[in-house]
Write a structure and sequence with these properties.
flat, mainly alpha, 131 residues, 76% helix, 5 helices, single chain
Length: 131
């Protein structure tokens, strides 16, 4: 395998790990939100924090943290970290469908700006590697 193929394979692995970390982060947030329905301030019970969805949510978040360590080992933090902001956009979309949360114009504008920012960072990094 030549160096160009090896380099391409490494990039695919890196982006796959970012994708896995992103999905785990989103799932963790969604499951934690689902589990929060069992929590009550009025009838507080610590055992309510151990419901299925909260445990599943935090399991996803712990796994995300472990995957993220591998991402950081292979990529610059300043490049990899902005990709996690895509989770805000995807959580917004999933929240609309799963929890019937409103999507306002301001949320669309903010999500669009984050997406544009990630695209600029990606294109800038890609341009630096081609120089």
């Amino acid at each position: 395998m030549n160096s160009v193929d090896q380099n391409m394979e490494n990039h695919v692995k890196q982006y796959f790990l970012i994708f896995v970390a992103l999905i785990l982060l989103i799932l963790g947030q969604i499951f934690a939100k689902m589990g929060s329905d069992a929590l009550s301030i009025d009838n507080f019970n610590v055992l309510d924090f151990f419901n299925f969805f909260i445990i599943l949510g935090y399991t996803c978040l712990i796994l995300q943290g472990l995957v993220w360590i591998f991402v950081l080992r292979q990529m610059d933090l300043s490049f990899a970290y902005p990709f996690m902001s895509i989770s805000y956009v995807l959580v917004l979309i999933f929240s609309y469908f799963i929890f019937n949360e409103a999507i306002t114009g301001w949320k669309i504008i903010g999500s669009s700006l984050m997406t544009i920012g990630v695209a600029i960072i990606y294109l800038g990094e890609r341009g630096n590697k081609n120089d």
